[in-house]
Amino acid sequence: MSSISRPPNKPKVAFIGTGGTISSLGVHPLELQGYAVHDKRMHASEIVARFPVVNEIAQVIPVDFRNVPSPEIYFPAQRALRDARSGAVGLAAHRPGRALSRAGYHLRMRAQQVDIAVIGAGIVGIACAYYLALSERRPKIALIDPLAPMSLTSAASGENYRNWWPHPVMTAFTDYSIDLMEAVATESDNRLHMTRRGYALATRQADPELLLRQLHEGYGPQGAAKIRVHKAGSASAYRPAESADWRTAPDGVDVIQDRSLIERCFPSFDREIATVLHIRRAGDISGQQLGSHMLERVRERGGRLIPGRMVGIERAAAFDLTVKGEEALSSVHADVMVDAAGPHVAEVAALLGETLPVSTVFQQKIAFEDVQGVVDRRMPFAIDLDGQIIDWTEEERVLLADDPATRWLTGPMPGAVHCRPDGGERGRWIKLGWAYNRRPAQPVADLPTDENFPEIVLRGASRLNPGLSAYYGRLPSRMSHYGGYYTMTRENWPLIGPMATKGAYVAGALSGYGTMGACATGALVAAWILGETLPDFARPLGRARYDDKVLMQGLLAASNTGVL
Fold first, then answer.
1. CA dist list (Å): 462 to 137, 259, 432, 470
2. Is the model's pLDDT at 2 over the cut of 80?
3. Which end of the chain has fewer beta carbons closer than 10 Å to its terminal beta carbon, N or C?
4. pLDDT over 90 (residue 117)
5. Cα separations (Å) of 471 from 240, 370, 455, 467?
6. Is 341 in contact with 504 (CB distance < 8 Å)?
7. Which residues pair with 358 in a beta bridge?
8. pTM to 2 decimals?
9. What CA dihedral angle connects 527, 511, 163 and 271, to 10 degrees?
């Protein structure tokens, strides 16, 4: 060391410690692997102290910046790092070479500037961007998502809609959304293939008192005028779902308690069905076409997609959003942000330091070609409300009960298994679904579909439509088994409106009704952001409802949260 020359005037050098690789310590000084496992990183002053010889040639000023792994140094921190180096005569920054090159790219890169950043390009995020883009103000909008638009849960939508819920707030919300979907259907020459054969909710109860009370409660003061009861022996003006045209279909609800009428109008149903609630303002749409139509309009008005996953948010005068793409990090500067990240909505909120009262579960569906024509193409979306024991043979039941992993399949199962024709009157496919899973899970890229689910849902659906038993053990080769993550609040209401962070809004927790509720959600978010008049039902759909103890007690005590 004595051979080192000592300049008369030593330069000042700032050593900025950002917690990179060389700051990490292993168990042994010579350890080369696993050093990060011990989560011990030296600060800049500690590193400088270990190499006192450098003070022979320079005045080293250690700067403790952010003592975290290099990949966690995102754009706002890089900007601060740039500011820190500007006043130094020289600079030494400890970080791995790869991270250093990425940081250098970041320091030279300008952030993308937008007015509003919508996190999530599923049907809900696209709807938020759509209604914001329609504003006369024409804000500059970016949709941020690591996946292609309408992927993940939006790609697994049941694509159904209905305006009945066991609470008038949710009924008003979905009525509003249907109004908006009908407007899109009219504008686009029904590009979204909107139909309205209704929902047929079936039960073996001859007098389902609780269900009928919930029906009246859901429609509120107007319920009496909307609900038509058809009992045995009475003159009936019931109109079967003969037409799929949403413009001519009836409104309200038909409560059918005449078994002969049920058998005549729903011939594929189990003969034990005693009551059918036919919700008339209900049907199906193409969620993909709805999303495509709205996305095209967003692009026409200057909106754009930014591929990448949100990994950092910093809030100052505006939002600095760090987005991780396939090749590098990028930054988006936005005045307003909307968390519409679907099953990742809580993760994005956590980047703001906020917690959302949501959980996520994985639900599955199947679709297959009804080669035997079991389900009439004119049938409405049908739901068996009653719980059941799955129709296994005795031998199958013994085998299932013998295995702890499948024993649950021999016990009581919840209701709400559903079936509907898919592909229109000329199609041949049907969809089956059963949201019996209640186990929360973190979303993963490799969907955890259960290979037994197709047979499980088939047997469950055959209780309402016994003809489906023809497919036991031999589902057609043309069959699709898919699933999606559904994020929900405990009361199964969405979260739409301002977050605790100023300038941030949430549009999420639309578990199982994202397609039917997307338009209303987008319009409400736009109204919140633009300061427009909100409908009466809007505020209870936001986080403010948790301050209303009476409302929340009623919702949490309800036996029906609208899950179908």
1. 53, 19, 10, 9
2. no
3. N
4. yes
5. 28, 9, 9, 8
6. no
7. 489
8. 0.81
9. 180
Q: Which residues contact 206 (CB under 8 A, 6 or more apart)?
A: 257, 274, 275
- In sequence order, what are the residues at sequence separation of 6 or more whose Cβ sits closer than 8 angstroms to the Cβ of residue 13? 58, 59, 60, 61, 88, 89, 90, 91, 92
Give the separation between CA 421 and CA 193, rounded to whole angstroms.
14
Tokens of 394: 């005795």
- Mean pLDDT in residue range 167-189: 96
Q: What's at 307, amino acid-wise?
A: P
Q: Which residue has the tokens 């039960």?
A: 203
| Phi, psi for 95 (deg, rounded to 5) | -170, 160
The per-residue b/e assignment along 349-372, b for 16 or more CB within 10 angstroms, e otherwise, is: bebbebebebbbbbbbbbbbbbee
The single residue listed with the structure tokens 């249907």 is: 178
φ and ψ of 126, to 5 deg = -65, -40
Question: Do 325 and 161 meet the contact criterion of CB atoms below 8 Å apart?
Answer: no
Provide the β-strand partners of residue 332: 112, 321
Under a CB-based contact definition with an 8 Å cutoff, are residues 459 and 392 in contact?
A: yes
Q: Cα 303 to chain center, whole Å? A: 21
For residue 201, the surrounding DSSP H or E stretch is: strand 199-203
Task: Give CA–CA dist 298/132, Å, rounded.
Answer: 9
CA separation for the pair 478, 144 (Å, rounded): 35
**122 neighbors 514 (Cβ within 8 angstroms):** yes
473, two tokens: 């053990």
99: pLDDT strictly greater than 80: no
* CB of 20 closer than 8 Å to CB of 94: yes
pLDDT tens profile 392-446:
999 999 999 999 999 999 999 999 999 999 988 788 999 999 999 999 999 988 8
Give the relative orientation of helices 168-187 and 514-530 as an angle to the nearest 10 degrees: 90
Give Cβ neighbours of residue 149 (< 8 Å, ≥ 6 apart).
Answer: 121, 122, 126, 143, 291, 295, 305
User: What does the block give as tokens for 367?
Assistant: 């679709």
pLDDT of residue 320 exceeding 60, the answer is: yes
DSSP label at 286? -
pLDDT digits (tens, 9 = 90+) for 457-471: 999 999 999 999 999
Helix (H, G, I), strand (E, B) or coil at 497: strand
**In this model, does residue 111 exceed pLDDT 70?**
yes
- E-state strands within 48-100: 59-64, 90-94
- Token output for 45: 């002053």
Where b means 16+ CB within 10 Å and e means fewer, 68-79 reads: ebbeebbbbbbb
pLDDT tens, position by position, 469-481 = 999 999 999 999 9
Q: What are phi and psi of 431, to 5 degrees?
A: -115, 140
Q: 500: closest CA among 352, 385, 400, 384?
A: 352
- Burial pattern 447-461, b for ≥16 Cβ within 10 A else e, equals eeeeeebbbbbbbbb
What is the model's pLDDT at position 59? Answer: 77
| Residue 486: partners with Cβ closer than 8 Å, 6 or more residues away | 153, 343, 360, 361, 362, 363, 435, 511, 512
Contact (CB, 8 A) for 143 and 301: no
Kindly give, in sequence order, each residue whose CB lies less than 8 Å from that of residue 54, ignoring residues fewer than 6 positions away: 48, 60
Q: Which two tokens stand for residue 50?
A: 């270990």
